[in-house]
Structures
1.
Amino acid sequence: MRKKKHGAERIAACADLLIADPSVLLTDPQSPFGTARPLCLEIGCGKGAFACGTAAAQPDINLIAMERVADVACIALERAAAERELRPGDNLRFIIGNAQNLSEWFPEHCLDRIYLNFSDPWPKAGYAKRRLTHVGFLEQYRRALKTGGVLLFKTDNVALFDFSLEQFDAAGLEVLWQTRDLHNSPYGEGNIMTEYESNFTVKGFTINAAAVRFDKKAD
Ligand SMILES: C[S@@+](CC[C@H](N)C(=O)[O-])C[C@H]1O[C@@H](n2cnc3c(N)ncnc32)[C@H](O)[C@@H]1O
């Protein structure tokens, strides 16, 4: 993406939606919100369609949306600001940052749910560790999620989906459900589309999805 003109000023204009120093979450992960609610995290939120839609549709949760590219997060922040009146519970905040730093920002076992939507596939074998469903990341999610917490994963990419199922198995996680065609499955009810999901669906791709439960690691 080309660098946004006045990106820093535009992000600053949405400062009330941004967790500028995510390390504050370590002391109290609910502190950015006026009301404590089940806490959910979307990693790689892109331009924010899913985060905004989910926060509006689920006023009973608090949602933090994370995006590592500031110019992309800027678009998500501006969208969230424009759609503010759809969220009377004021339940959406953003982090501009990389999921690699999750354990520096989130205390242990504070999250109820993590969403991964159309994560970058990193197709070259040498980059497997960068995939957000690699066991290295799954162990970070296990630390941050409550016992019984759930990861919800959607992707158009069959190779990434197959890899992810292998990684869930390797990490000893329970796959609650999986489908190779979310929109024509019972799990698609209430589904909120992401930008990538809309684009791939228009092009005729089916959407792979899974829900995975994290319990304490077996000894
Ligand atoms: C393929 S896009 C999908 C965007 C959006 N989730 C959607 O479905 O429309 C992946 C997004 O994840 C972000 N991302 C990739 N790796 C990340 C990481 N380690 N931490 C935070 N964001 C990341 C990228 O910058 C990009 O915006």
2.
Amino acid sequence: MARIPTLILGGTGYVAGELLRLVLGHPQFEVAGILSDSQPGEPVAKAFPHLAPALGDLRFLSEADITQRVTTLPACALFSAAPHGVSAALIDRLLAAAAAAGTRPRVVDISADYRYATPEAYAAVYKHAHGAPARIAEFTCAVPEHLAAAPTPHVAHPGCFATATLLASVPLLALDLVVPTLFVSGVTGSTGSGRKPVEGTHHPTRHSDLYSYNALVHRHIPEITACAAAATGVTADFAFVPHSGPFARGIHATVQATLKRAIDTPTLLAQLRSYYAHSPFVRVTDAAPRVKDVAGSNYAQLSAATNGRTVAVLCAIDNLNKGAAGGAVQWMNRLFDLPETAGLTAPAAGWT
Ligand SMILES: NC(=O)c1ccc[n+]([C@@H]2O[C@H](COP(=O)([O-])OP(=O)(O)OC[C@H]3O[C@@H](n4cnc5c(N)ncnc54)[C@H](OP(=O)(O)O)[C@@H]3O)[C@@H](O)[C@H]2O)c1
């Protein structure tokens, strides 16, 4: 089978780097170009020295170069890891050029731009108008484990906190185990804030510290609520408190709720295993999940405990991989009828 040309938007960003790493090791996708808004023409290895052995003299492209590829490649995989507020209009320009040329790119957007069902819902959270409202209907937003096939040509991947929270919460709601008010505490590594250091995300500030931010008002709450409702039919309340953790990669989410009927821990673990029996990247373990056991991989580790009618489900993922680039590749595999696991089965490095 011919390799599938793959284009990446989001240039020097952390998620774009992770996408590049995954595509370089993928059996079917092949890098056909990576867009940098700020560094077209520069060697990609300068931005991602850890990938240098696999990059050769690959150089960043301009938007004009990427447009040329999108309009001449009959089909390609197009990932966007551009910032929210930029991604929608950029994708729209490329899809419009492709339509005019008669080519058929498939898109997975990792930014927030196509995660909402309406431009109003997006604007309410991000406080600016949507960049391409007419395109929204062409995207479906879901964690791959919670929707077998997208009914649209393109997919929007939920955010990293949303992914971890949804993996832990959706079985509780889908199996009608809990009162639909869920309390979520999430801790993220510093790569979750992107490449540009700002006060509050800078290493000296985060190192050896732990603190919450945006308690109960984090912008992932509406997308968590909407994705959980789409997956389960239940509109639940999510009370979410995010925290900054003193590590670079990974997310740990703790979801607590009240059980409708008391069940013991082994029974709940068995129900979680059964719920995710056909999800190759979700591992339900008796032991509590640890970030280092998943960091750098597309695996999610879940565990749970109950006490009377109280339940806690714990989830660890890698924010850049399972929560962004890996989940996006998982979706793109499906869009191209490849095995869902293609290029994604490498386990975590450990001791990172
Ligand atoms: N970090 C995470 O854990 C995570 C998880 C899930 C989703 N996401 C989402 O993924 C996207 C990328 O996140 P990130 O952490 O990689 O951010 P990042 O490190 O800040 O990188 C974003 C990159 O986008 C490019 N860019 C900036 N302005 C642009 C423009 N006007 N046009 C085109 N490209 C532009 C920049 O690279 P160039 O100047 O080289 O183009 C920049 O380095 C964001 O939408 C974010 O919300 C991130």
3.
Amino acid sequence: MEINLFAPESFRAGHPHDQYHWLRENAPVFWQQTADGEGYWALTRYRDVFAVDRDFSTFSSEPTVMIADPDPAGDMLFGGRKMMLMMDPPQHTLLRRLVRTTFTREAALTRAPRLDQLARQILGKVAPSGACDFVEDIAGEMPSYVIAELMGLPPEDGRQLYRLTEILHSASPPSEIVAALSAMFEYGREVIKQKRAHPGEDIASALLSAELDGRKLDDAEFLLFFLLLIDAGGDTTRNLLGAGLIALLENPDQIEWLKADLEGRLGSAREELLRYCAPVVYMRRRATKDTRIGDTEIRAGQKVVMYFGAANRDPSEFEAPDRLDLSRTPNGHIAFGTGPHGCLGQHLARLEIDAVLRHLFATLDDIEITAPPQWLSSNFIAGPKTLPIRFRAR
Ligand code: HEM
């Protein structure tokens, strides 16, 4: 079996489950070479991914959670500052605390009626046409509107910002990536001006007035937070919905099971789709000291990469892991990560997913894929780029 978890081509048809399977069985802590010669340890077992994600003192998120080390030019853009995703406690904890209350389960639940209304609008708009691109017209609409509302921005701007994150996450040419980053940066600067002048009941205004160690966030710190929130909540949710619909259509019996009691079964169905599709492929850490994972010695300074999609199909944790079983309970999947960085937006994401699935199955019947979906060729984010479907409006 040829193993290459670094090559974006390996993800051309979604997660490379055949490679994950071989690795879990034969080399669960595998040295993956990279073109720059540096290489990293690839983890594919549930228990290793879980343990490393929680042990932030041995496995640091600094200087970045991407496999490639940061580009010094990108760093300069923000005066050497970083996103909290790429920090360790205690600095990470201080920043996360600034937005924690917006993202609790209770706070997310207060938004549920609004999310439901958005999903109804999105589905209502496409239903009469009988066909659409599920990714563009349904799955991508939801998270971009939600983020825009959270940030107190016009919905159309949410769409624009989300398009920019797509460029950042796909294997775009470096010049396009730089252009997309500067466009976001420009937009963020406008937000700073407007929200300082006219603060509202939104996270952008809250972040600008928050105090960190007795001082306000500076512009670079705000911009990085802004980018993180736009970036983390957009195509993750979209890709779960896109990949999730493909998985459902491949298992029509599961759709029937779900529709037989949509409200009662949505919860376990959504968790199973998260397990099965795992939209975030990996997060990377760096060993702070010599250590071991299983029988493998890890040297201080080496990179360690957690493959969430592989952990989610580990047979020692999940019975018949390659089977989509919407009734699976309990379901301890790790699609949102765990430990100090465990997904901040997970409660909101769950409600977004539920709202779209609820209105999808309440509004459309006989959904069919009309052309082979194209997957993102990315080793970081897994999901279909396009998913043309046709259907009958109920
Ligand atoms: C299906 C949708 C989503 C998935 C699969 C997902 C997955 C993840 C994963 C795997 C991480 C890293 C966890 C770790 O390192 O242990 C993460 C972090 C994060 N997510 Fe999500 N996410 C989703 C939706 C969202 C949404 C809707 C938001 C916000 C509106 C969001 C905001 C964040 C933030 C801010 C972080 C960084 C947390 C930190 O560093 O403390 N995510 N997410």
